[in-house]
Every structure is written in structure tokens, then in C-alpha cells.
Specification:
It is a single chain. This protein is an alpha/beta fold. The protein contains 15 helices and twelve strands. It is globular. It binds pyridoxal-5'-phosphate.
């Protein structure tokens, strides 16, 4: 009970000072600790907590019990020592890179990255004196050739966005180890259900938890999982930059995570069926899906992934015009950016998610004008195939 309960305070005071909850029950669902600050019994305890890197009991930008549960669950699912939750995937990416990089450092990154991550590297981090070279993500030799004595990080997304190229994680880890560099992998597309990079030697895994981890298109969140010492440094940077996740958002991600395995299993199954159906349609020039034997890195996918994911891309014979027409013609797949949700989302990268890129940057990233990206949802696969077929038939 709070100190205020010992006195008979006036009405206005009693509306403000409520007794602290004394909970004897063990709730099954994680409660939302929607509080920014915590009662202390001794002044000195606050000073101790402000220095503490352990459980959060001080101020929510440093940590919070609901966020703490999410961080422990994500660390467990990725097989790492410590997890950290952020207000968005980009807060996770930027805080991690700002922690691990210093002026004069060099990064080698896969050339097919999420656009905001690429812009962060080429603009903001470049302004701080960090140089980045982009290399073909499917060629470990290209990573090896780009490494310099100042290289601190090999950064990649596998499967990549939007081309579904894979990077051989074990091969890139070997290169990084030889040169004393770190590997950082954005595992958003695969999810820990389909791929656990830390088990393959990667140093830091991060996610836009906005996508599959939360899974319902209703919350922005990010997370990082890595070894404790490195995570403690990223945690400190997070408290200073302020990108900590909100407790209610953490609760939404935790709720989504309970069905991650069920959802991803269905995403995997639907995507495989749709990829096969698309391959046989005359309006489609090629389908990019790691689960298809026609994918140039299918054998690598079989080796390093336990499922092939819910993301696929396909190129239309009709180019940019056909791409725009197709995404405006589906009735079930929703025309929207983002991915990883229960509902199927379709987009045309050249005019939507990658519209920030110039024509030259699009060409360099290997994104053809008729490319379509599909985030396959958990709807009935026959309905999804029928929907895509009616939209594709209109192009013929
Ligand atoms: C692969 C990948 N990484 C990071 C991000 C950034 O995540 P957020 O939008 O949660 O900041 C995205 C967003 O689309 C993404 O697709």
C-alpha cells in the first residue's frame, strides 16, 4: 500500500494517489504495465536502478516488466542471450548500427536491403564518417573482396527485400571472423520459425517486429537479439536515443507471438502453392521463391532454412504498366506496403515501397519495373490463387 493510504487525504488528492496494486494471483496473460515510472521505498534505490542493466524497475525508457517479458521471449526464440525491444524496426536498426559503428568504420552490406536501412547507411551514417559498400547478397566472394581493414560490420537481409535473394550465412560468418568484423542479419522475412541466424554463427539478429512477429498489421515494433555484453551496450544507446517500445505495443507483439508457429506454418504452405500456380501463368515471366526448385539458391535455402517463408516476388511480362494494373485488380490481396500479416498484401516495388529509389538505383538493386511483391497471408490458398488468376488473366 502507498504512503498516502495512512492519512485521510482530501477528494482531489485521492483522485490522484491510488493504492499500489497488491496482486496475489498469477495471471496467465502477461499484464500491460502501462506506467512510465515506479514507486521506490528508498531514495538511494533509484540511483542504483539508473545504473542497472538488469530487470527494469526504474523508468520505462530504461525498461518495463511487459517489455522485459517480450525481450526474454524473443531472445529465447532466436536462441540468443539478451533481447531488446524497440519502437520500430528502424529504431532497432539505427540504434544497433549507431552502437556498433564509429567514424572511420566501414560496412559491407547486401545490395538488396530494405530502403530505409539502405538510406540510413548511404546518407546518415555516411555523414557521420561511416562508409558502406554494397555487394551482391548471393555471392559470399563479393563480401570477401569488399572487406577492408576498417570493416566492422557485414550487414545483410536473407531472404532479401524484395528479390528473395539468399546469403550463405555460414560463409559470410567465416569471412567476418577472419577479418575481426561482426555479422548483423535482419531476419524479418524468415522469422525465427524458419531461420535462426545466431545458431549459424551470426553475431546480431534484428527484426521489424511490425511484420511476422506481431503479425496483424496493427503495431510498429522492432527487436534485437545478441550476446549479453553487446546487448548491454545497445540497451544503453537505446535509453539515450529513446527508441524504447511502448508497453502496450509490447503486449500486442507478445499476443501475436503466441500464434507465430501456426501462422508461419500456414504462410509457408500457402506461399509454396501460390508460387507453383504463378509459375504456370503465361503473364508471369519468372517467380522468385526460395522454396521453388527453379530459385537459383534453392539448395542453399534447403540447407539454412527450416521453412521458405510467406514472401514471394514475381515479374510480369508486361513491365511497369502491367505491374500497376495487377496490384489494382486483386480483390483479396490488399494493395498496401508492409508484410508479414495474416492478410495477404500485394505491392509494386517500383512505384510503392522502392519509389524513394531513382531509376538508376532501382536498376542497380536489380528491381525490374514489372516486379510484384506478395506477402502471402493465412487465407484459404484456393481463394488466393483464384484471386491472383483473375487479376493476371486481365493482363493477357
Ligand atoms: C526487412 C525490413 N527491415 C526493417 C524494416 C523497418 O521496420 P519498421 O517499419 O518496423 O521500422 C522493414 C520495414 O518494412 C523491413 O521490411
Amino acid at each position: 500500500m502507498s504512503k498516502s493510504a495512512e492519512h485521510s487525504w482530501s477528494f482531489a488528492t485521492r483522485t490522484v494517489h491510488h493504492p499500489a496494486a497488491e496482486v496475489r494471483l498469477q495471471p496467465v496473460a502477461t499484464p500491460v504495465y502501462q506506467t512510465t515510472t515506479y514507486r521506490a521505498t528508498e531514495a538511494e534505490a533509484i540511483a542504483e536502478h539508473s545504473e542497472e542493466i538488469g530487470p527494469p524497475t526504474f523508468y520505462t525508457r530504461y525498461g518495463n516488466p511487459t517489455i522485459d517479458v517480450l525481450e526474454r521471449v524473443v531472445a529465447d526464440l532466436e536462441g540468443g542471450e539478451r533481447g531488446l525491444a524497440f519502437a520500430s524496426g528502424m529504431a532497432a536498426v539505427s540504434t544497433t548500427l549507431l552502437t556498433l559503428l564509429n567514424p572511420g568504420d566501414h560496412v559491407v552490406a547486401g545490395s538488396s536491403l530494405y530502403t530505409a536501412t539502405a538510406k540510413l547507411l548511404t546518407h546518415d551514417l555516411a555523414e557521420l564518417g561511416v562508409a558502406t559498400d554494397f555487394v551482391s547478397p548471393d555471392d559470399p566472394g563479393a563480401f570477401a573482396r569488399a572487406v577492408r581493414s576498417s570493416t566492422r560490420i557485414l550487414y545483410l537481409e536473407s531472404p532479401s527485400n524484395p528479390l528473395l535473394s539468399l546469403t550463405d550465412l555460414a560463409a559470410v560468418c567465416q569471412i567476418a571472423n577472419r577479418h575481426g568484423a561482426l555479422t548483423v542479419v535482419d531476419n524479418t522475412f524468415a522469422t525465427p520459425y524458419n531461420q535462426r541466424p545466431l545458431e549459424q554463427g551470426v553475431d546480431v539478429v534484428l527484426h521489424s517486429a511490425t511484420k511476422y512477429l506481431a503479425g496483424h498489421s496493427d503495431v510498429l515494433a522492432g527487436c534485437v537479439v545478441c550476446g549479453r555484453e553487446r546487448a548491454d551496450k545497445i540497451w544503453l544507446k537505446r535509453t539515450l536515443l529513446g527508441g524504447t517500445l511502448d508497453p502496450f505495443a509490447a503486449w500486442l507483439v507478445l499476443r501475436g507471438l503466441k500464434t507465430l508457429a501456426l501462422r508461419v506454418r500456414q504462410h509457408n504452405e500457402n506461399a509454396m502453392l501460390i508460387a507453383r500456380a504463378l509459375e504456370s501463368h503465361p503473364a508471369v515471366a519468372r517467380v522468385l521463391y526460395p522454396g521453388l526448385p527453379s530459385h537459383p539458391q534453392h539448395s542453399l535455402a534447403v540447407r539454412q532454412m527450416s521453412g521458405f517463408g510467406g514472401m514471394l516476388a514475381f515479374e510480369l511480362r508486361g513491365g511497369r504498366e502491367a505491374g500497376i494494373h495487377l496490384v489494382e485488380s486483386t480483390r483479396l490481396a490488399v494493395l498496401a506496403v508492409s508484410l508479414g500479416s495474416v492478410e495477404s498484401l500485394i505491392e509494386h516495388p517500383a512505384s510503392m515501397s522502392h519509389s524513394l529509389l531513382s531509376d538508376e538505383e532501382l536498376r542497380r538493386a536489380g528491381i525490374p519495373p514489372g516486379l510484384i511483391r506478395l506477402s502471402v497471408g493465412i487465407e484459404d490458398s484456393e481463394d488466393l490463387i483464384a484471386d491472383l488468376k483473375q487479376a493476371l488473366d486481365k493482363l493477357a
